[in-house]
Amino acid sequence: MLNPLWLKTFAAAAASPSFSETARRLGLTQPTVSEHIRQLEQALNRRLFLRDTHSLALTSDGRSLLVHAEIILDAHERAERLFDAPRLRGRVRLGTSDDLAMGPLPDVLAAFRQAHPEVELDITIGVTSDLYRLLDDSGLDVMIGKRRRGDRRGQTLHKEALLWRAKEGLRLAPDAALPLILLREPSVTRTLALDALARAGRNWQIVCTSTSYAGCQAAARAGLGITVQPSHLSTTGLAAPAGALALPALPQVEFIVISAPTPNQPTQALTEILMRSSLT
Fold it and tell me: Measuring CA to CA, which residue among 71, 58, 69, 53 is closest to residue 16?
């Protein structure tokens, strides 16, 4: 068994010119350092250092061990930090748009649960406008969704493209009004899509609306028309519609995280994980 204390002493000795200097850096005695190295060499049945009265150098086995020792010590330190930290308790009310819930959010939730198993998560899935309203009415502690036009609150998670999508093989008649499947008003995605069509002078007709991207995707897969979705969503059964080059380019959409004005500790912890996650 590789004792982490031996490995710590070994790693320090590998970066030192002598065992006496290693002892000084670690606050140990030189005989203690020598004993740790001896026990480690005995456990591995390998010689780790070439040493004399004037020099100290790693053997080839020592160099190989150093790579693993650094990984083990790093994991050991992270585990100690995790379990030494006081456990958070309480509840976090998280609001998220359904496109994030259908995409990378599960990885974030898993990371948060692992780090803070005693915090209860209360998740609300809705359109961005409803999430803003709930946050402003103190119904949420933190929300993730799209940035509303003119609202500068929050921290940017990432930006990504919006895409036109339709049932595979669907062809658009060049002179007919575009059959649109869009999120119900108010919607950031809906507004961006209609603004792009207006600037391009394209005629359109809304044939279906939904409160969720899942509903829009279902209608598009049924062949009802074309829809707009962020690029991270699954495109199973959907593709760029034939004649898509004639459609106006869509702008990027910005995803953000906004916390309540006075967030509690669990909310702060979740926000920190969100900002380090695959959402960024």
Answer: 58
> What is d(CA 193, CA 209) in angstroms, rounded to the nearest whole number?
14
The CA distances from residue 40 to 21, 47, 167, in Å, are 19, 9, 64
CA dihedral 186, 191, 194, 197 (to 10 degrees): 180
Predicted confidence (pLDDT) per residue in 171-226, tens digit: 777 677 889 999 888 888 898 899 888 888 888 889 999 988 888 999 999 889 89
End-to-end Cα separation, the chain, in angstroms: 40
Determine the Cα–Cα distance for residues 208 and 182; give it in Å rounded to an integer: 7
135-175 pLDDT, tens digit per residue, is: 989 999 999 988 877 778 888 888 888 889 988 888 777 67
Global pTM value: 0.62
